[in-house]
Structures are given as structure tokens and as C-alpha cells.
Amino acid sequence: MEENVLILGAASDMAVGIARKFAAEGYSITLAGRNMDRLKAIEADLKVRHNGNVSSVMFDALDFENHYNFYHSLPEKPDVVISVFGLLGDQEEAQSDWKSCQEILFSNYVGAVSILNVVANDFEKRKKGVIVGISSVAGERGRQSNYLYGSAKAGFTSYLSGLRNRMFRHGVHVLTVKPGFVKTKMIENMKTPGPLTATPKEVGERVFKAVKAKTDTIYVRPIWSPVMIMIRNIPEGVFKKMKL
Amino acid sequence: MKKSISNWNNYPVVEAKEISFDNPKELSLKLTHSSIPHGNGRCYGDASLFSEVVNTLRYDKVLAFDETHGIITCQSGVLLSELLQIIVPRGWFLPVTPGTKFITVGGAIASDVHGKNHHVDGSFSNHIVSMSVLTGTGETLICSKNQNSDLFWATCGGMGLTGIILDVKFRLKGIHSSHIRQKQIKAENLDHVMELFDQNTESTYSVAWIDCLKSGKNFGRSILMLGEHAGTDETPVENKLLAKEKSLMTVPFHFPSFVLNGFSVKLFNALYYAKNYKKEMNSVVHYDGYFYPLDSILEWNKIYGKKGFVQYQFVLPLETSKEGLKNILTRINKMGMGSFLAVLKLFGHQDDLISFPMKGYTLALDFPIREGLFGFLDELDQVVADFGGRIYLSKDARMKKEIFWKTYPHATEFQRIIKKYDPDNRFNSNLSQRLMLKV
Ligand SMILES: Cc1cc2nc3c(=O)[nH]c(=O)nc-3n(C[C@H](O)[C@H](O)[C@H](O)COP(=O)(O)OP(=O)(O)OC[C@H]3O[C@@H](n4cnc5c(N)ncnc54)[C@H](O)[C@@H]3O)c2cc1C
Ligand SMILES: NC(=O)c1ccc[n+]([C@@H]2O[C@H](COP(=O)([O-])OP(=O)(O)OC[C@H]3O[C@@H](n4cnc5c(N)ncnc54)[C@H](OP(=O)(O)O)[C@@H]3O)[C@@H](O)[C@H]2O)c1
Questions:
Q1: Which domain does A128 fall in, by range?
Q2: B188 FRET partner, CA 20 to 30 A, in A5, A119, A179, B284?
């Protein structure tokens, strides 16, 4: 039987890019998200394009209590789990409003930890599987314009690295993806430099390749690697004075 | 946040706020100001430009494909290039395709695009089973030739002014091969090419490249290109239904406009002819090179420089075509404003409300924007109007409203229907303002 990929936060543009690539490569797909209308359209699209096996299930990253049941009642146990959901949020609003701050932290970090713990325990038992987390370059250094989102992603990146370390000897692979800019609805009202901005289709291709090659960490566009080296190496004394 | 956007010809450039959607339910909430749907920006002008635009590219899911009958249902933002990848390997083709595959289904309907097979298959609207439109009244209505037919006809060729086309069901054309049997015939002059068109109306695809710089006995010399879908036995490759994705070349920057002076155009034409030294050439070619020769040079529009260019496409009724084309080509010839791409085609008959095609000849040419051009084109407009023809709205960035109202016979009826479905002008564009379509 074909291998199955579970995509968490499957209605996102990036998730569609990823799902199309895996479906094209013959995987069956389980789409998990919180809006059934959109999942159904994506499901139909994947079926038409790739004659694939696709199903859709409801999933809310913030519904922690239900994560265990959600996972264990899936129609099919996945071989690859890709955690895509996330929330950029509004930094300024979140600075003064705890509810929206909490939503950012929970949607990018706590929710992922909650569901991936369940997945990891199962994969550990089954001695196989791949876990992919979509984190962010924003987690590499906090900036005033989005450090609440960034710090949650930093937590997520750390979590994935620890998980990779734990799961290695069980034959489970963990891939951390720091996409850089991707042309999705999350950044539709931002101007981003063309060479640094990838398409969801590129994300799908890069993630697939990295899963196959068992790479540990990737940027979608390789150019992000020197860019982030530079950003990480700016002395804090200088960095704190910059308008970023 | 506003950003600068323009369409394929880089003119005009407007500051616009862009909204996108992938779920119609959330879309209605986002439509707080007047806006215009925006597909892949492949029109040449201001039809999909306004201070607020609704980008449809995320609304791109293919919802169903009846492979037995060749009927596909999709969301309006899907590109024809994506559909080809899906349908060609299963033995189907687009019923009508323009000269680029990088347009959306919504754009194909809103411009009611025509292809090289117009004289046989009509325009895109001819193949629509039904579609849904989010209108200016906030309702989502299903329409077809039989249901809400006024909305249907005002939406086909209606340049987005009835609302946002959402889901579309349309018929495909069966093929046995991804290749096209092509015949290229050299024509010495305009009379000759028109004769050839006339003799070849049986041919499924026909179009001519015409050299608009020649005068004297070679005035209007051209190459007529005919095509038929090939059979499996004539297809030279093993995989008979291959939707190949060519490696794409990009034109990396805006060429300075002096590159495109009369000299380079002459050179281009000469090269083109050298390739076709025989009177008639037959070959079997992949559909991609046949229908979309320019698509492999991504962003070729940049060779016209930063100022941009305009494409001028008009159609003349059959009765006046010959005289009209001579008149217009002579003027272009005199101005020395000749263009890289002059494409001539004979349309078939079409019954509709506001679409561009009518029985007769259509000519399309590119002009780099420079001083004096717009005045010159105003003159041409007048000639086109006097000969009973009209200008293609999807290629228009500058026509005066008087010309539009004089040349589109059902304009008043069109205006009445868009008012019915959009009483508060929720949808508006630079084009509709320029032509006073929304009152
Ligand atoms: C190289 C090239 C060759 C071409 N060849 C041909 C040809 O042979 N024949 C031909 O007919 N055309 C041709 N065209 C023109 C092109 O096919 C049309 O302009 C087409 O409408 C562009 O579609 P788009 O998706 O890019 O939409 P845009 O250019 O963004 O928009 C075009 C119009 O469609 C409307 N629109 C877009 N989406 C929707 C929607 N979902 N609902 C309602 N309205 C919508 C817009 O408001 C606008 O009025 C060519 C263009 C190029 C660049
Ligand atoms: N775009 C970029 O430039 C960029 C850069 C770096 C990292 N990322 C990360 O990439 C991932 C994908 O983002 P995207 O760019 O594709 O943007 P997106 O379309 O906004 O995707 C975010 C997705 O997360 C889902 N989501 C949010 N909260 C959820 C919850 N509680 N339960 C279930 N699903 C939830 C959203 O669901 P709904 O559809 O129901 O709202 C949405 O589909 C995110 O983790 C993002 O942080 C993006």
C-alpha cells in the first residue's frame, strides 16, 4: 500500500503546494484543518490531478485535549506528518492584548508540541516515520516587528531539534523547514524581495526532496543561508539599534 | 498596503490594494470597497486595474473532471497551463486557447478569448456549461445560456464588470495526440493571404504572421499557419499525450526602448522569412510550440522597456476587411511604427452581447509607447470605426469612450445588465471608468 502523509493545517497555501507534490509522487494524503469547505476543494483538486487517495479531517491546533483522540482515530496511520499550521498575528496588538499574544504563541508553538508529542510517541513505537515542522527564519533572531511570532517559532525550532535527537535512534527522521518568504496569504500585503520569495510549489518540491534525502534542516531557497548567517552575526549592540 | 501593479504591457501602472481569497465565504467579507477581479494580469491594458483588485490566483482548485465526456469543473483562478498538465495526458485539450497559456479561466471568460480556431469553434464562452458569479448584489448566482442568461452574456466578454466569476464548468475537446500537424504557406501580399484564408476555412486552426513594414508588391506579405490535431500514427514521439513543461527562459531586465527601432524589426522579419524559404512547409510539432511560441521566453514583455507598450487589436467586418486593412497597414507603414508581432486572423460569425469577435479579419500588433503614438492610434480608431470595426477591450489601454460607444452595438444593453447585477458599482475598473461603463 502507498505511504500516507498527514498534513496539519492543510488549507494553507504552503500545505497545498506540499500536498500536490506528495500526491504526484504517489502518496495518499490526509488533510487536516479547521475549515471543511476549503479542505474539500483541495481534496477534489488532488483527486483530479493525481487520481490519488485523499481524505479530509477536522483538526484544530488549539484543541489540545482532543489531539490524542484525533490522532488515534485517523482513518489511516501516517508515515509522514507535516505540521504546517501557524499564525503571523499582529505584533502590535499582541503586545498589549494577552489574548492575541497567547493565540500567536499557542498556534505556532504549544499547539505543535501538543500534537507532535502524540505523533512522536506512536512513531517511536512503530520505529519509523518522518516528522516535518514548518518553522521560520523569524525564529533565528527576534526583531521588534514580529518577535512574538518569532519567539514561538524559535521554541518550535528548538523542539524539533530535540525531537530529532530523541528519535534518531528509533529510526524516525525529523525535518525542520525554515521557508523564508513564501508567496501565500500570510504575507499577501507585504512587499518582499523577489529573489528571497519562494512559491508554494517550490516549498512542496524542496520539502519532498528533503524528506527523501533525510535532511535535517532546510531553507526553501538556499540564498537564505548566507542571509541568515549575516543576520545572526550582527553584534547585539548594533542589532538593538536597528529598525527591523 | 498599496502596491504598484500593471498588466502584461506595463502600461498603465496603478497603485492598488490587493485582496486574495481561496474561499468565497470569506471573500464577501473582504469586499469592502469597489474593486475589480484580477487574474494573471495577461491582458494588455487597464481592464483588471483599479484602486482595489481581487486577485483570483489562490482560488485555483480543480473540482471535478468527467474524463468520459471531457467536462471539467474548476475554480476561476486556475491557469490554463495547469489545466493542460491535467487534461492532455488523458486525451483532452482546451476548446479554445489564446496565444499564451498563462491566463486564468476567469480571465478567459471575462475577455471571452478567441483562438486560432475561432472560425470553427467560436470563442471560449461557446464551451461553457455553467458558471457561478458573485455579483455586486452580494449574491452568488449560477448562470448559463439558459439560466440567468442575461448575466451569462454580460459576464462573457464583460471584463469583470458583473462580478467575480467563481466556479466554472466547461467542455473540452478530445485529442489523440499532443502534437499538431502544421502547414505553413507563404503569401506574397495581403490579397494573397486573404485568398488563402478563404480557401482554408475547413482547417481547424489558422492564423497568419504579417510583415507590416513592406510596401509595393510585397505589401502585407505573410505566412499563413494552418493546423490540425495530429493522429497517433503521425506523432513522432513514444508518449503520444505528453504535456511537456519546457524549461523556461527569462528576459531578466527591461531592455532600453531603442533596441526596438525599425532596424531590429526588419531584421526580425528577415530572419523569420529565411526560415521559411519554401512556399509550403509541413511538419508535426508539439502543441506547446505551436500555440504558445512566446511562453518559453518568460517576461518577453520587458524587451519593450520600462515605458511599456500597447497592443492594438481590431476587427473589421468581412465586407470592409480588405479595404480597411490596406488603409490601416498603409498608415502604419508610413509612420514607421511597425511592430514585432502582427498577427492576422479570420474570425467566424459570433452572436453575443459584448464580446469582441465578429465575422471578419482581426489584426493585432504591438507598439512601444513613445511620443505621438496615442495620437496616431486615435486616428486608427477612427478608421476602424468608419469601416464598422471595433477594438478588443482586453488589449486596450487608451481608446476614447466615444469610439467604444460607437463600435459596440449592444453597449447600452450591456450597461443596463451590469447595473442590474451591480447597482452600487461594487465592481469598477480603470477601463470601465475610462469608457464610462458604470454610471
Ligand atoms: C502573449 C499573449 C497572447 C495572447 N493571445 C490572445 C489570443 O490569442 N486571443 C485572445 O482572446 N486573447 C489573447 N491574449 C489576451 C489574454 O488572453 C486575455 O487578456 C485574458 O483575459 C488574460 O487573462 P488573465 O487571467 O491574465 O486576466 P487579467 O489580465 O488579470 O484580467 C483580464 C480581464 O478578466 C477579468 N477577470 C479575471 N478573472 C476574473 C474572474 N474570476 N471573474 C471575473 N472577471 C475576471 C479582469 O477583471 C479583466 O477584465 C493574449 C495575451 C498575451 C500576453
Ligand atoms: N508565508 C511565509 O512567508 C512564511 C514564512 C515562514 C514561515 N511560514 C510558516 O509557514 C506555515 C504555513 O503558512 P502559510 O504561509 O501557508 O500561511 P497561511 O496560508 O496563513 O497558513 C496558515 C495555516 O495555519 C492554519 N491554522 C492556524 N491556526 C490553526 C489552528 N488553531 N488549527 C488549525 N489550523 C490552523 C490556518 O488555518 P485556516 O486556513 O483555517 O485559517 C492556515 O491554513 C506557517 O506555519 C507559517 O508560520 C510562512
A1: 4-239
A2: B284
